[in-house]
Amino acid sequence: MTDEFIEIQAVPDDSQEPVRSQFRVPVEQASRAVLIAGDIRCPILEINRDGAGISIQDNISFKKGDVLENCCLELEGETFLGLKARIVHRSIDPGGVLRCGIKWSDLSERKQKQMEHLLGQMKNRALKQTDRDVTQK
Question: Each residue of 113-127: pLDDT tens digit?
């Protein structure tokens, strides 16, 4: 045992950092989840019922606060038309991928239920893939 420790500090209430209330399900293959905004196609990296993390090219000018009207989401073979999303952040991840976080707005109850059903299937697959037998040595 060592004397090392981790100091945990509370996040101030006035923090401007986005906080997710939902776990985002990772997307296994970029072709299985795509956000289409006009003529721009963005692979989805992870997704939940509130929003998604998308990969974008350098030449795409999305910026924080932009609202994407009449988007299309292709998810697990299903198509969701007429979506509205707001860009909540734009950053470069440690691997050098330019990405944006989006938050869905005005999602109908029907679309929410359809999306939650698909996300449940994706979550189950992701958990099965990472599940391992810890009893074996």
Answer: 999 999 988 888 877
